[in-house]
C-alpha cells in the first residue's frame, strides 16, 4: 500500500482513479501549517528560526495521512511542481517526522505538469528526493515577507492611522499605481493639428493621404499649433497640383506569439474575456485538476517534443499543410531561474478543441480553455504575411509632400485562428490603396484639418499592471493575482471602469513609504531581491545570509521611522504630494483656508484615512476630502430626526466627518453619532442616508434555527453581518439597508461552513503599554470577534462598544473588570 499526498480533493480523486487500489491518495488542502499571524514567528536574532502553527484543517489532514501510513510501506509526495508545491511537501514531511509517523517508511517526491494517466504513472515510476534549494528559497521568501509585514505594520498603526499594513511587493505595485495617478493629475493637454487630403485619379475611389512635409520641412507633431495655421496650409494644398513621386512595396511577416506563461495568460484573459487575474488562476486551476491543461504557474514558453508533434498534427488536420511550417517554431524563455521553469500552459491533448469539452464545464472554463487552445495551436502555425505599400506624393513645386500607406494580407497564417490582444480573432487590414504608377497625376478632392489634444497616460488595467510588474521584474507571475487582490482588500485601490484608481489611504501610504522607506519601494531594489531569491533556489546564495543582509538595514530603517514625530511625517507628506492636494480651480498651489482665511491647509490623518483640514482646528473645522479635486465639506444641519425631533448634523471631528443627532451639550447623555464611511461622499450626504447610518448597528432579523438576532453594522474593514460570533462581510454599505433575512441567513451559514483557512488572531491596533507593567496592550481580531490582549489576559469587547472607540483607557478598564463566575 502506498500513500500519495496532493493538495486538493479534486486532484486526489482523479489521481486515485489512475493509480488503482494499491494507492491511497489524500489531499493536504494546501499548506498544513504556516507562520502564525503574531509577533515572533520569525526570530532574526536566533538565526531566523521560524515557528510554525497548524490550523484545525491541517491537524485533521495530518491525522488522516498518519492513520493511512500505519498500513502502508511508502509515502509519495505528489504536490505541485513549483516552489510552493515543494514547500507543501516539505511541511508534510517535517510534521510527520516530528510525530514519528515515518518509521520504516520509504519517502519519495514525484512531480508532473499535467494530470493525465500517462504523466502521473510516468512520474510515479521516476521518483526523486525533495529539492533542498527550492525549499530554502520558499523559506527565505516566506520569512522576508513576514519580516517586512510585521515590522512595517506597527510603524503604520502609530504613524499613519488608516493604513492597515504594507507588504513587500504590494507596496511597490501600489507605488506604480500612485505614480500614474500623479502623472494624470499633473498632465496638461497640448493642442496640435493634422492635415489630410483626399485624392483620386480617373474614376477610382478617393483615398486619404497625410501631410508629412510643408515648405520643404518635415511636419512634426506639434508644428501646426492652431486652426489658423492649419487653415492657411489647407488653402495652399487646395490650390496645388500633385503627382506620385515614388511607390515602395515591401513584404512583411509576423511570427505568432509564444504559448502562454502565467502572466501572458492573465493579461489575455483580462483583455479578451474581462476576467480578473485572481479569477483566471482559479478557473485555470480547475482546468488543470480536470486534466485539460498543463500546470498553470510557469515562466517557461517551451513545449516538449511529444506536445509539439501533437499540435502540428492537429494543424495539418484542421487547416492543411499550407499552415504548417517546415519545422516547429521555437521560443526562448526570459526566465533565468531554471528550477522554477516548467512547460508552457497548453492543452494536455491538442485534439480536444474547445467545442469538444463537455457540458459539465462552466462558460468561464470553456472560454479560458478556448483561449489556451487557440494560443497553443497558433504558436506552431505559419507566419502571417502581408504587403506594405508606401506612396509619397509631391506638389509641382516639390516643397509639399503627402504620404499614404497601407498593408494587405497575402497569407493569413496563424491569424486565421488567433491574434494577440484583439477581441476579434482576425486582424483588419488598413485602407485599400488604388493601383498607382510613378509620375501619375492626381486630383485633390478636398483637404480636412483636425484638432487634437495630447492625452494623459491611462490608468493601469489588470492586464497593463501585470505587464508592467513583469517588465520591471517585480514579484513572480504566480503572485500577481494575490498582489492585486491584497491592494483591493486593504482598500488602497478601487477599480473604476476596469482601471485601478488609488484611494486616499493608498496614496498616503505610498508617499509615506517613498519618503521614509525609499530603498524598499524602489523598483530596482525589489527586482534585485527577486533575482537574489532566484539565486537561493539555484544554490548560488545561502538563504540565511540573504535574510541577514536584508534585515540588518531594514530593521534600522524601521526603528528610525518609529522615532519620527507625526508632525514631521505630515510636513514631509505635505511637501511631497502637496502639489497634487492643494491645487485650486485655477491650477495654482493655494494652502490658505477658504473658510477662516487665516489658517493653512494641511494633510491630516484619521482611522478612515487622510483628509485635508485647517491648522486652526478646532476654531476652524474646515475639511475636504484628500486629492487635488477633493470637495470642501461644510458643517450643516441635514434635517430633523423623525424619532427624537432633534436636528441631524453633519459635523467635522479630528477623525474626519460624521453625523450626529442633536448637539453635545448634555455630558450625561452623549448624542448618537456615526462616522461616514469613505465610500460615501459627505458633500452629497442626504438626510435619508444619515438616518440609515445612525440606525446602525441594526437588527436584520431573527435566525430561524436558534431564534437569535442577526445584526448589521460597519466595522474597520467595512459593512458586515454578525450572528453568534460569525462575521460575514458585505460588498457595500447599501446592502445593510436592503438585505433580506433569507439572504442574510445564507451569508452567515456560508461563512459558518467555510470560515477561511486557518484564520488566526490578527492585530488590529497597538494601543500602547500598560502603566503598571509596561507590557503592550493590543486590540485583536480573533475567531469569535474583537478582543483586548494584555500578556496572557484576553478580554472580549462588549457588544455595546464599537471597535473604533477602543483606546488605551477603555482597554485598561476592560482588563481591570473582574471576570464573572460561571
Mean pLDDT: 88
Number of helices: 21
Q: For this structure, what is the CATH class of the largest domain?
A: Mainly Alpha
Total E-strand runs: 33
The largest β sheet comes out as: 6 strands, antiparallel, barrel
User: How many domains comprise the coordinates?
Assistant: 7
Reported by name, the CATH topology of the largest domain is: Topoisomerase I, domain 2
Named at the architecture level, the CATH assignment of the largest domain is Orthogonal Bundle
Strand order of the largest sheet: 9-10-14-13-12-15
Distance between the ends: 51 Å
Given the helix and strand composition, which structural class is it?
A: alpha+beta
Low-confidence stretches: 423-428, 756-760
As a percent range, the share of helical residues equals 25-40%
Determine the CATH superfamily of the largest domain.
Answer: Topoisomerase I, domain 2
Rg over CA atoms, rounded to whole Å, is 32 Å
Portion in strands: 15-25%
What sort of overall outline do the alpha carbons produce when their principal axes are compared?
Answer: globular
3D structure, described in words:
The protein is α+β, with helices and mostly antiparallel strands and 822 residues long. The chain folds into seven domains: 2-130, Rossmann fold (3-Layer(aba) Sandwich), CATH 3.40.50; 139-187 and 462-564, Topoisomerase I, domain 2 (Orthogonal Bundle); 191-255 and 387-453, Topoisomerase I, domain 3 (Distorted Sandwich); 262-382, Topoisomerase I, domain 4, CATH 1.10.290; 584-694, no CATH class; 698-753, no CATH class; 762-816, no CATH class. Helices cover 34% and strands 23% of the residues. It contains 21 helices and 33 strands. Strands 9-10-14-13-12-15 form a six-stranded antiparallel barrel. It has a four-stranded parallel beta sheet with strand order 2-1-7-8, with helices on both faces. Helix 5 (132-159) runs parallel beside helix 16, helix 8 (262-273) crosses helix 11 (363-379) and helix 14 crosses helix 17 (566-577). The chain is globular, with a radius of gyration of 32 Å.
